[in-house]
Fold this protein.
Amino acid sequence: MIDIKKIIEAAIEEERKAQVSYQKAADAAQDPETKAFFEQLVKDELSHEKRLRDRLMAIKLIQDD
């Protein structure tokens, strides 16, 4: 049986890794456009993480009933 919670937890971890990677790229960027691009990617990954966490919480609530 597929453990959807574990899959979502792994996806959350990947989103967090991407955030760190993109933030490092933003910090290292020499020009403002590149910096802004990577900062937007960090925000996108934060949004993805939040959605995944919300889904995980909902699944846990359903399965705990």
About this structure: The mean pLDDT is 96. The radius of gyration is 15 Å. The helical segments are 4-28, 32-64.
